[in-house]
Structure formats: structure tokens, C-alpha cells
Write a structure and sequence with these properties.
This protein is 23% helix and 46% strand. With 156 residues, it is α/β, with parallel strands linked by helices. The longest helix has 36 residues.
Length: 156
């Protein structure tokens, strides 16, 4: 094989290697930016209300903690948040995409879920909890302790 052919093969090999490495690095960068955008939350302090009502297409994780706060995923459709001493109400319109949130509360006595809300209650220890669910809502839990748990359909 001539020297010119050898040089040409080496150059083509290096160009191919650089293209492969460049494509792999670009893929990692795009993946990191998508993951970063997906996990952007803003935190809102809440009252110590023992009642929580969620309406709309929510995907929420609720856990027990010393401070009441809401970590809300960034969205183009802002939710309506009503925060009183008795009840915290979170509402989004039916046309909005699923909105993700993490809620930390010191105590919870009443939970009302409507219009496609999905809730995971985890690491909660309370004496009693009353849950009201619409037919489209979903409620699951992990590592919770209740003396009394009441689950009923929503009275609308």
C-alpha cells in the first residue's frame, strides 16, 4: 500500500473518531439540559393548615416535615393557590398539562383530591386522616402510620 493511501486512511480514521466523540459529548449535554429543565422547582412557604384540597391534573408527593412548604415545578400554566389557616387549596384548569409538586406539612387531617389528581403520601404519622377522592383521582402511600384512616368518594 502506498504511503499516500496510508496517510489518507489515518486522516479519515481521526475525522471519524472526532465525529463520534463530538456526537457523544453533544448527546450528554442535551441529556443534562433536559434533566435540569425537568427538575426546576420553586418553593413557597405555606400556612400550618391541617387540610389540603387539590383540583386539576396534579402529580403530588406529600411528606411530613416541621415546616409547611410547597415545591412547585415550573409550568406555563400557573396554579391558583389559596392558603388560609384552615385549608390549603391548589387548583389548575382542566386544560393545563400535569403539574408536579412536592408538599411538606407538619400535620394533615383532611385531604380532598379531584379532577385527575395523583398523590403519594409518604413518611406521615398522624392519628387520623380523612381522604375524599373523585373517580379520576389516585391516592397511594408509603411508610405511613395512622390510627384511623377514612377514604370516601367526593361529595360534589
Amino acid at each position: 500500500m502506498k504511503t499516500s493511501h496510508k496517510i489518507l486512511l489515518i486522516v479519515v480514521g481521526f475525522v471519524g473518531l472526532f465525529a463520534l466523540v463530538g456526537g457523544w459529548m453533544l448527546r450528554l449535554e442535551v441529556k443534562a439540559r433536559v434533566a435540569q429543565k425537568r427538575h426546576q422547582y420553586r418553593t413557597i412557604d405555606l400556612s400550618q393548615a391541617p387540610q389540603l384540597e387539590l383540583r386539576g391534573r396534579w402529580q403530588v408527593t406529600i411528606q411530613q416535615g416541621s415546616q409547611a412548604k410547597l415545591s412547585l415545578a415550573k409550568s406555563d400554566v400557573p396554579p391558583v393557590i389559596t392558603n388560609t389557616q384552615e385549608t390549603i387549596r391548589l387548583k389548575v384548569t382542566k386544560a393545563s398539562p400535569v403539574l408536579k409538586a412536592r408538599i411538606t406539612l407538619p400535620t394533615l387531617k383532611y385531604l380532598r383530591l379531584a379532577n385527575g389528581t395523583t398523590v403519594v403520601l409518604q413518611n406521615f404519622k398522624v392519628d387520623s386522616l380523612a381522604v375524599r377522592l373523585s373517580p379520576q383521582a389516585s391516592f397511594t402511600g408509603r411508610n405511613n402510620e395512622f390510627v384511623y384512616l377514612q377514604v370516601k368518594p367526593v361529595d360534589e
